[in-house]
Amino acid sequence: MQDLTVLVLEDEPFQRLVTVTALEKHLSSPVLQAADGDQAMAMLAASSFVDIVLCDLKMTGMDGLAFLRHASSSGKVGAVVLCSELDPILRQATVAMIHCLGLTYLGDLGKPFHLEGFSPLVKRYHAHRNAVPRLLSRAELPSPSDVQRGLDNGEFEAYYQPKVTLEGQRLVGAEVLARWTHPQWGVLSPAHFLTVMEQHNLIDRMFWHLFEQGLALHQQLAAQGRVVNLAFNLHPGQLACNTLTERIPVLLKRARVAPGRVMFEITESGLLSAPANSLENLVRLRMLGCGLAMDDFGAGYSSLDRLSELPFNQIKLDRTFVHKMQSQPRSAAIISCSVALARALDITLVLEGVETVEQQARLIELGGTLAQGFLFARPMPESHFIDFCMAQAQATGGAGTDE
């Protein structure tokens, strides 16, 4: 194994000895060890960084849960591996807590500890570290004037992520996502500019840029015999705008795009305290003939209440349920129930975050039909999406899509 700093937090002396001895045979760095949370915090204070903490949870003194809470604020822990006999349901809640603390969770080795199970987790740790994109520092974050300049120069570009059928991977539509082709930093995701836009009321201007780009693409594909449904994200602040439902039909008519080919996605959390004019706009969009999707379904606190009273015709299940379904049976049960709920309500369900063929197969078993995720395609610029559509048309021999 590579040069890693590992801390073993285990109160049972023999188990700790076995674990540390096994690790020292494979690691070039000394293995840190502690019998309780207080000792572990002292080890952490004396270290510059600990790559992986192997953590038991139940112990006298400061237990593993308290240690993780304190350790998260230090910024010195790279990832956590659980080694516990805790009940599976309590372990799942602990994993959720680890994520909320901002720590990377690698897996659970249970007890007794087996070294062969640790090696794949080390690979996962390095893969995670290598996959995390470099975030801009505060000094590098774009200023409002820089964002304004980017909007003026047309640097914000629509990227498209396909929605496909789980079986056959047939294209049924695409979500339109924002990317900023920055002259200095290259292609930036919304994580780099969305906060600045929200703070300075620039979201609406970017949305109309993307909306017109999407409609132009729809026209181009339709001229080639390929009709694709497009989904645009609406910010809660936009949904409250009185002119929203006045401008959309004008642009649709000008581009000769049927309202039924356009979907608007609204996050569930954005609807928690939506004012009356927001709810009016939702009704008007549906009356116009456009689709409405509740995005990140299951991530908020009033999913079913909002779903029952608002005119959505699609729900997009939050990606966390797909990511957890192999390790957490309850997640698979929630997916199965969501499939049944969508059928009962006669609306479509899109399963987000599908990344592996194993997830795809399991989702088919659970009754899922539509999905979105890196397994099928990553967000892509317009030219690549056109090629994707043409390749789909050749593969299926069809021209249109239905969602």
UniProtKB/TrEMBL annotation:
Q: Which domain of life is it from?
A: Bacteria
Start and end of every Response regulatory domain? 5-126
Keywords linked to the UniProt accession: Phosphoprotein
Its GO biological process annotations read: phosphorelay signal transduction system
**Record-linked CDD domains:** EAL
One GO molecular function term of this record is: cyclic-guanylate-specific phosphodiesterase activity
Q: Which residues carry this modification: 4-aspartylphosphate?
A: D56
- Fetch the Gene3D superfamilies from UniProt: 3.40.50.2300, EAL domain
Which residue numbers delimit the EAL domain? 140-393
Q: Which organism is it from?
A: Pseudomonas alkylphenolica
Descriptive protein name: EAL domain-containing protein
